[in-house]
Amino acid sequence: MSIVVPWSPEKPGRSPANRSLKRGIEVLRAFRPGTEVLGNAELAERTGLSRSTITRLTQTLVGTGLLQQIPRARTYRLAPAILSLAHAMYSGCSELAEAAPIMRDAAEKHRVNVGLAAPDRDEMVYLESIRYNRWIALRKVVSGQRVPIELTSLGRAYLAVAPETEVKALMEMFKRKRNTRWPTLEVEIRAAIANVATKGYCQAAWQPEVMALAAPLHYSTVPLVLNVSTSTNEPMERMEKILAPILLCTLAKIDTALQKKLPL
Asked: Is 222 helix (H, G, I), strand (E, B) or coil?
């Protein structure tokens, strides 16, 4: 079972109120797809917080309407208010409003998958994913779904434009997490970063028979990465020649739309 690790350690001088808020957010973060309900023991394991602290936090989160308690099972699940907050973020994202119709046009025209994602700690979170898979058996990707930064074209494209201090911290985290696989992954990540600098995009095939290319947006007010992908058995070199023009053309259209929205 994975443990939710706070992205940055608490700094001396922070007030108890801020610390409590941060811990409460860690409790909410512990809920992931496939874990509809969690008890205090599981929440303590996932957050690294004590059982007594978890008990106080869950009571507060229930009282504020962010968690729902299931009395007989002594467990908790996310409350509808969380979905309302997510909807407010989704509907209020100006970058997504501009990008979505352009992404849909590209997906329909070229019969490829087109996604837009943002970084969150060591993962990328899909804001939108328009799927045109030829193979029904392939997994579906929806808004809110997470993928690892170190393995995906989305994540590697983000690393190419992320602040140096963040990249360094993430690379150390990946090294600890991936252990013996890290030397190979580091080479791939460094190559991807170089490709973004020279080509404007990078590629990866972390899922079986799925090829993906990604590039960071240039005129977004927050870090966002665009990707195109397809299911294929074709060699990566051949698919790159097909997908790269689609990605770069779609990216240019989105960047142009976003640039027009920037204040003069």
From this structure: coil
What's the CA gap between 137 and 254, in Å, rounded?
Answer: 31
Q: Compute, in degrees rounded to 10, the torsion defined by CA atoms 45, 50, 54, 56.
A: 180
Q: Which of 109, 107, 202 is CA-nearest to residue 155?
A: 202
In sequence order, what are the residues at sequence separation of 6 or more whose Cβ sits closer than 8 angstroms to the Cβ of residue 108? 132
N-terminal to C-terminal alpha carbon distance within the chain: 49
Rounded to the nearest 5 degrees, what angle is found at the Cα of 76, between the Cα atoms of 70 and 79? Answer: 95
pTM, two decimals, is 0.88
Q: How does pLDDT run across 203-247, given as a tens digit for each residue?
A: 999 888 889 999 999 999 999 999 999 988 888 889 999 999 999
For CA atoms 242, 196, 91, 121, give the dihedral sign.
positive
Structure tokens at 167: 């990249």
8 A C-beta contact, residue 189 and residue 150: yes
Q: How far apart are CA 251 and CA 200, in angstroms?
A: 10
Instruction: Give me Rg for the CA atoms of the chain.
Output: 20
pLDDT tens digits for range 144-194: 899 999 999 999 999 999 999 999 999 999 999 999 999 999 999 999 999
Could you tell me if 77 and 70 are in contact, meaning their C-beta atoms sit under 8 angstroms apart?
yes
